[in-house]
Fold:
Amino acid sequence: MKKGKVFGKRHVVLTLMVFALGAAIWLNMKFSSSEKYLGQATLVNDDEIASGEVIQTSAKVEADEDYFATAKKDRQKALDEAQELVEETLKSANATDAERETALKSVNALASRIEKANNIETLIKAKGFEKALVIIGDSDVSVVVKSEGLTTTQTLQIQDIITSYTEVSLSNIKIVTIK
Structure:
């Protein structure tokens, strides 16, 4: 730095940027309304709404659509996509033996999880539940059953079925009921 020079170009630019930031914050506070919240929408033309008419804006959910059927379709779709990915890896000419071995292990693990989930669902249905869905993760199991509510005995039965097929601890078993 030269002698006698108090401010350099960098200092002037930095000062201008600080003032610009302060002005932007001041303008934002001045022109933003404190009554609006993030994600809050306003209507452009609300003449029709004034009459009390309700307008549906989201897709209509079919009453016949069953949660369990939808979840099983989604699970099957994810399984098919994973299987296609593994098959592509196995068929790839560029894949190494280690990659092929890893792909085969993942297919076997996935098949084992699905078989265990199907067996658990069958046994839960045998205990008197109309519908059941089991999702087996790496270290946890989630179960969704159709029921008005579970008794302690029913909860213990479901936990016993899960622990007999998996090595998951009781603290990692989640049971959800749907009416």
Notes: Residues 36-64 have pLDDT under 50 and may be disordered. The chain has four helices and three strands.
